[in-house]
Every structure is written in C-alpha cells, then in structure tokens.
Specification:
The protein has 429 residues and is an alpha/beta fold. It has two domains: 2-52 and 364-425, Urease, subunit C, domain 1, CATH 2.30.40; 54-358, Metal-dependent hydrolases (TIM Barrel). The chain has 14 helices and 18 strands. Strand 8 (145-151), helix 4 and strand 9 form a beta-alpha-beta unit. Helix 2 runs parallel beside helix 3 (128-140), helix 5 (187-204) runs parallel beside helix 6 (222-232) and helix 6 runs parallel beside helix 8. The longest helix has 18 residues, at 187-204. 52% of the residues are buried. The structure holds fe (ii) ion.
C-alpha cells in the first residue's frame, strides 16, 4: 500500500523520538520507527517536534481585528471594552464581520491553530454576528473546526431580548450555551441565569461554557452554582467555566471546598492568561493581583484546564497574533508553572486539553485519527514554548495547507562566521 504522506523521524510531545507517521485518505494509518511504506510525499522532520494542531477553546471571532473601531479602549479595562463593543455593534455589517473572521482564520492556520471555540454575541436583535460566524464556520470547515457559543454579552437578564435571542441563535445552529452571570444586575440574578442556561443545555443536549466570575471580587461565586447545576442536571463532562478569575482572590479555605466540588462535577476550567494578566487587578494599586485562576491547583485535583487566547486586536486587547504558544508561554509565567512537567502541561493546555473540552473526535497522533499535524522548528514541547517555534508545516487531513521556511540567521562575526538556528540551544548541551 502507498501512503499519501509520510513524516519521517519526528519527535512527539509525549517524548517519543524517531517516529515515522504515515497518512492516507486524511487519516493516520501507521506510526512507528522506520516504517517501510512508500508515500506520494515525504517530509524529513530531522528529529523536530510533530504535534497535533493547536486549539483555542476561548475566543471572540465576531470582534477580532476590529481594533480602533469606532475608537480605542483608553482605560484598557474590561468594562470600557464592553461599552466600546456596544458602540460598535449597531454599525457592524455582516460582510465586514465575515471578512475579518476569515482573515483571522488565515492567520490561525499559519500558526497551526486548527480548532477554535468562539463565543458569539447574541445581544443584537439582528443576530448579525451569529449569521456571519455560521457562514464562516461553513466556509472554513475544510481547514478549521469552529465551534460557536451563544454568548449574551450584555447579560441574559440584563439585556431585555437576550433570552429569546440566545434561543434563536441555538435554533440557527450555534453549538454551545454561553452566559455571563457576574455581569447580571445582582448575585441572585447571576445565579438564576446559571440555572436557566444549564436547563436550556440539558433540554437540548448541548455543552455549556460560561464566562464565569471574570472579576477580582472574591465573593463572585457563580462557579459554585455552576457545579451544583451541573450535578442536578447530569451535565458532567459537558460544562466549562471560562476565566474564573475571582478564584485568584478567594479565601483559601473556601477554594479547598470549591475545587473538590468542581472535580466531582467534572467541570473544565479555561484560563485566558494574556487577557487575565491584562484586565484583572485594574482597581489595585500595589501589589497588583495577577488575576488568573488557580491553574496548578485545579490540575492537581484532576480537573481539565485549558488556556484560551480570548481576544486578538479587538476592544479588549490590542495585541495578539493567533499564536497559542504565546498563550502557553504567558500561562506558564503567570501561574509560575516552571518545572519540566508543568511546562509540558502548558503545551497540553493549548492542544490535548481543549480538545477534550470541545469534544473533538479523532484528535491526536494515533493510528486511525485525523491526519492533522504541525511540524515545529523545535525539538520538544518545552523548546516550542520557549521559542514560540516556527510552524514549518501545517497539515490538515494529510495535506500540507501552510508552510513557513526554516528560521535561521547568517552571522558574520569576527572569528565566528556561520548560521544560527534558535533550536540549537539545548539544556545541558
Ligand atoms: Fe471571553
């Protein structure tokens, strides 16, 4: 039998080296050392890392690349960002939203980012962003898996038509139920929104992903209600809490109870390190809180934890480039996850962990799975994060869909001529 594509001498994120990967008809058909199989195309990986694609399980594709429209966020705060988005919404056009989203997806592919969960604002009676992103989802399906979350940005109760719009969005084909309980008018209304949103998900057999407690207020405890509702409605394994930044500021004793509740409810946590470190602690003088949720402690309790990008060049965040290695790097720094195992876990937080949260099937480097792969200019996952490694080849269903030349610098120094490649610096070498 002839394969379509053979990757030779790859290193894998789990530490295996010298691995050949054979792909045919969009699937991985064989995996091992020195495979004796012919292929129409061969890539010599020369010991470099081959990873499954990057995944961003928390993004806002309806707002991306809108930076400066209609003006800049001068304070840099979450609340000015929400107000600014409110100014932009009425003047959005469907074509402009689609164009910006497709442009972002080009960038994503170039970075090996091939699955995205995007929240889409439903607090616009036209549901313009919903229609735009459903169209984008269709167009990019050959190269990116896009999952959409119905997100009532202005509050499920606080925005008068949010409830009916959220249901309309789900009827149109939006995949996941979203919410923003800490933005409702009262703690009680926030808790009630969690209850109703989970009921909607249970009735429709959908997943739940709430912007939950994205605040520095340690008394914002909607995650507690979310654990309770998840158990009451049998939603275990289908619910994610995004941000959970109030946990950063909570009393340690209370958190010791809360994390156990989250673990028994099989709730996943999604931290957004770039955004959390930027938006949280804004009311602090010094010391300033980091604001990110308690990633190492959640992981230790067996909870699935992923890192999301959240924003790229939009009303909330003027930076970003669709690079999930930048996200992993920030997560590592903010959470002080500096042991070798912890750094590898940060790589998992932008690959295998979000795959679980999104329920992606046939993801990962194993025989029978989709032949979706990224060849990185790094020897292992630790070096990939350290270098924000170049994506040499991005492969979707066994076909190369993006290529970037090897990055190297020619040096002309006195007595030291030569070329420099960043990945030549190995620990202890
Ligand atoms: Fe978000």
């Amino acid at each position: 039998m002839q394969a379509d594509l053979l990757l030779k001498n790859a290193s894998l994120p789990d530490g295996r080296t010298g691995i050949d990967i054979a792909c045919k008809d969009g699937r991985i058909i064989d995996l091992g050392t020195r495979l004796a199989i012919a292929a129409a195309q061969e890539i010599d990986c020369a010991g470099l890392l081959v990873s499954p694609p990057f995944i961003d399980c928390h993004f806002h594709m309806d707002a991306t690349l809108s930076l400066g429209l209609p003006r800049m966020n001068e304070s840099g705060t979450l609340l000015e960002g929400i107000a600014l988005w409110g100014e932009l919404k009425p003047i959005l056009t469907i074509d402009a939203v689609i164009e910006r989203a497709l442009k972002y997806c080009d960038l994503a592919v170039s970075q090996g980012l091939l699955a995205i969960r995007s929240h889409v604002d439903v607090c616009d009676d036209r549901l313009l962003a919903v229609d735009a992103l459903l169209e984008v989802k269709k167009q990019i399906a050959p190269y990116i898996d896009l999952q959409l979350v119905a997100f009532p940005q202005d509050g499920y109760f606080r925005s008068p038509t949010a409830k009916q719009n959220l249901l309309r969005a789900l009827d149109k084909g939006v995949d996941v139920v979203g919410g923003i309980p800490h933005f409702e008018r009262t703690m009680n209304e926030g808790a009630q929104s969690v209850r109703e949103l989970c009921e909607i998900a249970a009735e429709r057999g959908l997943r739940v992903d709430l912007h939950c407690d994205e605040t520095d207020d340690p008394l914002s405890r909607h995650i507690e209600t979310l654990t309770c509702e998840t158990q009451r409605l049998g939603l275990q394994g289908r619910v994610a809490g995004s941000h959970l930044t109030s946990m950063h500021s909570m009393d340690n004793y209370y958190v010791s109870k809360l994390i156990a509740l989250m673990a028994e409810s099989e709730i996943a946590a999604i931290a957004n390190p770039l955004i959390n470190i930027t938006l949280q602690g804004r009311h602090d003088t010094y010391p300033k809180r980091r604001g990110m949720t308690r990633v190492p402690e959640l992981r230790k309790a067996g909870i699935t934890v992923a890192f999301g990008h959240d924003c790229v060049m939009d009303p909330w965040y003027s930076m970003g480039s669709g690079d999930m290695l930048e996200v992993a790097s920030m997560g590592l720094h903010v959470a002080q996850m500096t042991s070798r195992d912890d750094i590898r876990a940060c790589f998992d937080a932008v690959t295998t962990e979000p795959a679980k949260i999104m329920g992606l099937e046939n993801y990962g480097i194993a025989v029978g799975n989709h032949a979706d792969l990224v060849v990185l200019q790094a020897k292992d996952s630790i070096e990939a994060i350290r270098l924000r490694a170049n994506r040499l080849f991005v492969i979707r269903r066994g076909k190369v869909i993006a290529q970037t030349p090897t990055r190297q610098t020619s040096l002309d120094l006195p007595g030291r001529p030569g070329t420099l490649r960043a990945e030549t610096y190995a620990p202890g070498a």
